[in-house]
Write a structure and sequence with these properties.
Elements (H helix, E strand, L loop, with lengths): L4 H29 L5 H15 L3 E7 L5 H9 L20 E4 L7 E6 L9 H4 L7 E4 L5 H8 L5 E4 L1 H6 L4 E2 L8 E2 L6 E4 L1 E7 L3 H4 L2 E7 L1 H6 L1 H10 L2 E7 L6 H11 L10 E6 L11 H19 L6 E3 L2 H10 L2 H7 L1 H54 L6 H42 L2 H17 L3 H44 L12 H19 L5 H36 L2 H25 L5 H33 L8 H5 L1
Parallel strand pairs: 1-10, 1-11, 2-9, 6-7, 11-12, 12-13
Antiparallel strand pairs: 2-10, 3-4, 3-9, 5-8
């Protein structure tokens, strides 16, 4: 078996993730053992673990029909199976968008969503949460022939009347030369895909490590399912745009690139690779190798200029020869196919990008944990040091001084308890503020706005009316987000005032409540608006097609907006539940220390303990707290070392000191 660059990259990433998981587990377990945990710390550790478990790497393959896209997927990922797995032949093959992934909690299967679901006005993302709507074909992973036969379902079509095709909002083309519509046959029927979407759960080694492959079947699928462009492609870590080397960039290829992949004139090409497939058709034995290479380079330069993509992001390959080389274990043929260079580029693009995302997310959450636990440790050190200093001053003092000191501790304890009582009144204000925030992020309010927009769209008779309706929808959604953003600032300022009061009056460590911002959700909505506007502007249509697109546009927008609001609700709720945790932890530590001080002085006052015995006991406690700090820093350093293995970022301890 020929090891590939992608497999090696995934193995390295997987091993790194396991080491990181192990070091974080050790840190989290130690925090619980040493009673450093609170609601916020537990939540952040849980978030870190979720980040590590959600290690999916999404690679999208986009091409018009007959560009060899399915063969490329076979060559890159399934060459070790000894035959083609994804259907690949001349003409149209994969007819519906397909996701290949692996979920160990589900049986190996192909799930197929009938094309008729397009009439229900429900997004594919919503259907993924309803297993009853899908037809299932179970796979036998040890039988390549059975797997291959089952996946032939992805090529299935059906004949319907033109009226039915239009009801399904599928573009229809009279000209077979055009690739951007369903073809009308001689008898007037229209050939359409049998399935709207397919999910393939398959235990391939790379899929088991988190790779998810999105296979999209051409311009008409992307045009009729805006969700693919606006959500799935937009979230992919890498997009491979496949062209035919002998044809170069055709009109439909260029439309596909500009409207669905590149994302606008100012879009970055980061995460985008262009593949010139079928380069073997240029291998002309009547030409010398230098002439062939010049022809290939000429195609690369032309493609680079047409798509405004750097030449180094364009890869001439022969997927068919690459697959054959892997099946036959022919290293020379595999190298000449160009597939290995593409694999290296994918690995160098995909793995570091995912690793960077994981590293940044882990650092962000652990920063808060480290700050909180160091603050608690500092508070413990300070409390014990103050107690030792207090008792040292008693040496040689009379009974009246001891009684005065005991009274002072009682007074401090009573003052803290009174402040805690006043804090309960603050909780009432806090509750009112949180209710306002929940109101701005209300899913009922979002759903009501969605229903109103749908009603307005149904009665709109012009494309301008449709656009205005959607502009109004996004305007109100944006205003809700803006109001929520202002409300989070008010809550933050309220809690910072409470924290500051307790710190000034009781000498607690200088900590602040965890910060939270709605801005990332505002940016998501803004990007969503921009992608939809670009999507609509990029298409030139007649009235009927515009009305159809408006409905698809609406369905995709609704699905995306609801998910943004769901995440905002979930994250806001987590923040509000834990915003007081650091202060409550410090107050609890302070209360414990006041009780210990009072008990120590009482025992000395009653002569049940000598001053020397009590000081020796406190010094032993102090040594234990210092040992805690040493163990804590060692565990933090272990996490840092794994995070920094290929990362030049500052160490976590420096960021959080």
């Amino acid at each position: 078996m020929i090891d590939t660059y992608i497999e090696k990259g995934f193995d390295a990433y997987s091993n790194w993730r396991k080491r990181l998981q192990s070091s974080i587990d050790a840190y989290g377990s130690w925090l619980k053992e040493q009673k450093f945990s609170d609601g916020q710390i537990d939540q952040r550790i849980e978030t870190v673990v979720s980040t590590l478990n959600d290690d999916k790497l999404y690679v999208a393959f986009v091409a018009e029909f007959s560009r060899g896209k399915s063969e490329l997927i076979n060559a890159l990922f399934f060459g070790d199976m000894g035959q083609r797995v994804v259907p690949s032949s001349a003409g149209r093959t994969t007819m519906c968008p397909t996701e290949l992934y692996y979920d160990p909690d589900k049986e190996a299967m192909v799930q197929l969503l009938p094309i008729e679901t397009r009439m229900q006005g429900t997004s594919v993302a919503d259907y993924k949460e309803n297993a009853d709507e899908w037809e299932n074909l179970f796979l036998q992973p040890d039988d390549p022939e059975q797997v291959h036969a089952a996946l032939q379902q992805l090529t299935k079509v059906k004949l319907v009347t033109r009226d039915m095709a239009e009801k399904l909002d599928l573009p229809v083309s009279e000209d077979e030369a055009h690739e951007d519509g369903m073809h009308v046959l001689d008898d007037g029927s229209v050939e359409i895909p049998r399935w709207r979407h397919a999910l393939v759960n398959y235990p391939h080694p790379l899929l088991e490590q988190g790779l998810v492959i999105l296979d999209t079947p051409g311009l008409n699928a992307l045009g009729s399912e805006p969700e693919l462009t606006l959500n799935m492609l937009a979230s992919a870590h890498a997009v491979l745009f496949v062209l035919a080397a002998d044809a170069g960039v055709t009109r439909s290829d260029l439309t596909l690139w500009r409207d669905h992949i590149n994302g606008g004139e100012k879009a970055s090409n980061r995460g985008r690779l262009v593949v010139l497939n079928k380069v073997d058709v240029l291998w002309d034995e009547l030409k010398n190798p230098h002439e062939v290479e010049r022809e290939i380079q000429r195609q690369i330069q032309t493609t680079s200029k047409t798509l405004s993509v750097p030449a180094e992001q364009i890869f001439p390959i022969s997927a068919q020869k690459g697959l054959l080389g892997k099946i036959r274990h022919d290293q020379k043929l595999l190298e000449s196919s160009g597939v290995l260079k593409l694999e290296s580029a994918i690995a160098n693009l995909l793995i570091p990008e995912k690793r960077e995302i994981v590293t940044n997310n882990v650092r962000h959450e652990l920063n808060g944990v480290v700050k909180s636990t160091r603050a608690v440790n500092d508070q413990r050190v300070q409390n014990v040091s103050e107690h030792i200093s207090e008792l040292q001053k008693l040496n040689g003092k009379n009974i009246e001084v001891i009684e005065d000191m005991m009274q002072k501790v009682r007074s401090d304890k009573e003052h803290l308890e009174k402040n805690l009582q006043r804090f309960q009144a603050t909780r009432s204000i806090f509750s009112q503020q949180t209710n306002k925030l929940y109101g701005y992020l209300s899913m009922k309010r979002v759903d009501r706005l969605i229903a109103e927009t749908k009603k307005d769209m149904a009665i709109s008779l012009t494309t301008a009316g449709l656009r205005n309706t959607m502009v109004k929808f996004f305007k109100e959604i944006t205003e809700m987000m803006d109001s929520a953003s202002k409300q989070t600032v008010e809550i933050q300022e309220l809690m910072e005032g409470v924290y500051k009061k307790f710190q000034e009056e009781h000498g607690l460590a200088n900590i602040k409540p965890r910060r939270f911002s709605i801005s990332k959700y505002q940016r998501e909505v803004k990007r969503l608006i921009g992608r939809h506007e670009h999507f609509i502007r990029g298409l030139s249509m007649v009235m009927t097609e515009q009305m159809v697109l408006g409905r698809r546009f609406y369905e995709s927008a609704v699905s995306s907006v609801r998910r943004v609001f769901q995440r905002a609700n979930r994250d806001s709720d987590d923040w509000l539940k834990t915003i007081m945790s650091p202060m409550e932890t410090q107050v609890r530590e302070h209360q414990v220390q006041l009780r210990r001080r009072l008990e120590s002085i009482k025992r000395i006052h009653k002569a049940s303990d000598t001053l020397e015995d009590r000081l020796a006991e406190l010094e032993h406690v102090q040594d234990g707290i210092k040992q805690q700090r040493s163990e804590m820093e060692d565990l933090i350093r272990r996490v840092e070392e794994v995070l920094d293995e290929n990362d030049n970022a500052e160490q976590l301890s420096e960021q959080t000191a």
